[in-house]
Amino acid sequence: VATQNKDIQTVELLLRSGAHVNKKVDNGWTALMVASQNGDIEMVELLMQCCKHFEKYNIDTTVSLLEASKNGQVETVKSLLDSGIHVDERDLNGWTSLMKASRYNQKKTISQLMEHGANVTGTDIYGNTALMIAAEYGDAEAVQ
């Protein structure tokens, strides 16, 4: 709840008191996922700092990157990628952050992902590339 409400002071207090940073709530999401979806860069950086020990490639960081990309949270995407999360992590359907950003017409996020070396030719489980997804949803600028 503190993460959803962007209450960084409460989150800091909870973390200092031993709260588990990777604890999931009823919907299966962690604080990092929520902060990433909301584009709360300060919260994302705090949570990433607290969980330096966890693997860079796990469902928590993958969902966080995909949600931030989908929602056009450019600074959050940059922070997650700068922390070492791989730009081409995939969800269960094989979608990458570039595919999510392309689907939701997030041009600035697409540029950020491209700067970090996103694979433009990768396909999802159905054979779709990010370019095909952008074209399907009618964003000529994103396709370019």
From TrEMBL:
Membrane-spanning residues: none
Lineage, highest ranks first: Eukaryota, Metazoa, Spiralia, Lophotrochozoa, Mollusca
Name used for this protein in its record: Uncharacterized protein
Ranges: ANK repeats: 27-49, 93-125
Swiss-Prot/TrEMBL keywords: ANK repeat, Repeat
Alphabetical list of Pfam families matching this protein: Ank_2, Ank_4
UniProt keyword Cell membrane present: no
PANTHER family in UniProt: ANKYRIN REPEAT PROTEIN, GH09064P
